[in-house]
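FAQ: What does the model actually see?

It sees only this:
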Amino acid sequence: MAKGRPAGLRLETAERRQSEFQQTCLDDLLSSDHRARQVWEYVEGLDLSLLYGRVQTTVSSSGRPAIDPAILVSLWLYATLEGVGSARLLDRLCQSDAAYLWLLGGVTVNYHTLADLRTEAGPLLDELLSSSMAGMIASGAVRIETLAVDGMRLQAAANRGTFRRSERLAKLEKAALEVVQRLRAEVDEDPAAAQRRTTARRLAVAEDRARRLDKARQAQAEIERQREEQRQKQRRKEKRKDHKEARTSTVDPQARIMKMADGSFRPAYNVQFKTAAEGAHIVGISVTDCGSDHGQLGPALDEIKQRYGVRPKRVLADGGYTSKDGIEKLHAQDIALFSPLPKSKGDPAAPKRGDKAGTIAWRQRMASEEGMDLYRRRFATERPHAHMRNHGLRQVLVRGREKVKAVVLWHVHAFNFLQFKRLNLA
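And it is asked to produce this:
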């Protein structure tokens, strides 16, 4: 009872312990223009044959029916739009939030099913990106004559304390294999079932650690191989005095320590976005372990060619992508590169020693006002990055490039969905 209530008043007060029956309809919970309805309509138009092909329950089989993949896809797409990136949080919302209850339509899910689909749907999402954007490009709704390429560092699940050098990795791997052998012997010899199950669980954990250490050792060897190739390419006969042995993470061997936007160095992945300058639609995406954008223009154009069978006429990129060899390769394909000129004394448009036709044309192009105006259009294509950052894509909690790419693809489809709605295409 609230303070100040005098005696003798007749009021309707809250009674929260009274049992009652309520008749409700899920379709009445949301307005006709609610975003959840739009997401469901959009998902119904997608080709989910890859997910339906995994369903093993049929009308002639026994057991519990599988959850419709369209429901799971719509849940994650809507959750991504709302900034929800945790399977456990999504599970809780599916029990109380009206929008998620409407999408479920009486179907029950758990966080494990949601988490599995989020990372396993990567190949489907990648295929849907190609098929959906190919139709838009063919109809002229999306134009990729001018393509912007930009990278975004995405913090990995590992931390710097998990990175080890080769000698330490070898010791850890040897110790892990010894534990695996000892536990396997205990599983085979111990007659007690309960104790055997406990040992089997410990064995599974030890085997997983041994596998991760083996992958870390292989990744460390790959880094050293790449460094040696770079040294040979630069014609250095000896290693630099400040050379340090490569280190890899025992938690996420594919993550690399990179310089982040705030100037710090943390384990991360380099996500490369290919965005149409007109409309800011994302048309391509890849995840690399390279801490630099240098040399990424060639793979970016190859990806667009593989997805849509065409190449752009103009490419917008920042200074980290440019090299004389790369500029000449683009020039040979009749692709004009718009990237800022490096700071130098004298006239930046003047040819330098060793410049070829492509580099000379690039200098003259970027020294003109028209060239700079076109290059400035690249800044508009960074809007998808801001949208993803604002919707929770700052650090991934999954490990490995394929799973990281799957998580990023959910954000890519969520952003493109908003772009399609803006153009009344979805």
